[in-house]
Amino acid sequence: MFIVEINVMNEERLKDDMEDMRVWLDHHCVQPDKFYYTFARLGAICHLEFSVESEAEAFAATFSGHLKKASGVTLTPLSAIVRATP
Q: Are 43 and 3 in contact, with CB atoms under 8 Å apart?
């Protein structure tokens, strides 16, 4: 299981941001296993669980999310890895 956490710093934008996420998911034919949010001191945190790593990576990259394995280990999306040229 791959978990994406997205910080929404402004509670007033939560509805719009969640709508943007839903549109992206629909457009890419992706269905997360779980989608919920919790309120935090500074806004809200959206939590999405995916069973397919590449879907989780793409979603995290699009919405500046943090990708974690279910074990709690934080992963770096492949798109964020830059190879040094010799």
A: no
